[in-house]
Amino acid sequence: MHNRPARWKTLLAFAIIYLVWGSTFLAIRVGVHEVPPFLLAAMRFFVAGLVLYLWTIIRGERSPSARQWIAAFFIAFTIFDLDYGLLFWAEQRVPSGLAAVMLATIPVFMALSEVVLLRTQKLTARLSSALAIGIAGVAVLMSRSVHLGGEPIDPKGAMALIIAALSWSVSSALIRKLPLPESKVMSSGVQMLAGGIWLVLTSAALGEFRGFHPATVSKAAWLSLLYLIVAGSIVGFTAYIWLLHHQSPTKVGTYAYVNPVVAVCLGYFLAGETLGLRTLLGTGFVLLSVIVITTAPAKKPVMALEEAG
Questions:
Q1: 299 band by pLDDT with thresholds 50, 70 and 90
Q2: Residues 96-153 pLDDT 10s
Q3: Is residue 303 very low, low, confident or very high in pLDDT (cuts 50, 70, 90)?
Q4: How far apart (Å, rounded) are the C-alpha atoms in residues 304 and 168?
Q5: Total domain count for the chain?
Q6: Contact criterion met (CB below 8 Å) for 267 and 96
Q7: DSSP code string of the chain
Q8: Which one of 26, 64, 172, 304 is most buried, counting C-beta atoms within 10 A?
Q9: How far is 4 from 115, CA to CA, in rounded Å?
Q10: What is the pTM of this model?
Q11: How many CB atoms lie within 10 A of CB 214?
Q12: Is 229 part of a structural domain of the chain?
């Protein structure tokens, strides 16, 4: 642990990962109304990854080896094409706040993968309860048979978000085995850059370029993209890495259950998204599940590219 930094710096860094990362879900929602989803995600991560990569090279770090580039491209497919790509796609159908809540289930799926696939965790009574609560939360948000008022979440959008959360949990397990650069900034920069390339290829394969005319895109959509690149990826990630060097991983990890609350509130106040009993109950169950899982006696945390939105 380094010397204790000024209190204002710590508070500012936490404010960034809480508020900025929580707000990226609304920025995505604004952007995908006018820009095809995989193309929007491609522009965000290619530019942000290139900036981080060039910054680390200018600071004198070595470029990754061929083996590390291959690993980065491999993991970037699961993180960016399957996780972020599907998140951007789903936000055409799902309110931004609920998209954030659905992605908050990532720790639930990570715990499941550790129990079932990796066999690195035992299914304790605490973990079983947390998993059941998390699954109940998703069921409340999706179920058409539970009468809680408000429309249930769009099934295709919900399925895309569940696959996104699953892919993140799988990639978090895989990343422990891959030869990525030791520098967290370099590692995340090349993952974003590789992810941007994957997303461009996916966007092209889906024919998103054919119907896209940049001149018709509004200033609000371009500003949302700029916000995602600068605030969401570059500034947010820098604050996150700085916090990891000055605070405990448990404290830093609290963003996992603050971000969805911020996203739901911003969606309600700024975008007119509904906030009925269904949303409140489903969100409460999911966040309780995440809190129980993430505050359990911890092993060494996974240092993957961790980002919200």
A1: low
A2: 999 999 998 888 888 877 777 767 778 888 888 988 999 899 988 988 766 666 678 8
A3: very low
A4: 10
A5: 1
A6: yes
A7: --SPPPHHHHHHHHHIIIIIHHHHHHHHHHHHTTS-HHHHHHHHHHHHHHHHHHHHHHTTPPPPPHHHHHHHHHHHIIIIIIIIHHHHHHTTTS-HHHHHHHHTTHHHHHHHHIIIII--S---HHHHHHHHHHHHHHHHHH-SSS--SSPPPPHHHHHHHHHHHHHHHHHHHHGGGS---SSHHHHHHHHHHHHHHHHHHHHHHTTTTTT--GGGS-HHHHHHHHHIIIIIIIIHHHHHHHHHHHS-HHHHTTHHHHHHHHHHHHHHHHH-----HHHHHHHHHHHHHHHHHHTSSP-SPP-S-----
A8: 26
A9: 37
A10: 0.90
A11: 7
A12: yes
* Side chain identity, residue 98: L
Domain containing 145 equals 7-294
What are 246's two structure tokens? 């000055």
> Is 208 inside any structural domain?
yes
Domain membership of residue 49 (yes or no) is: yes
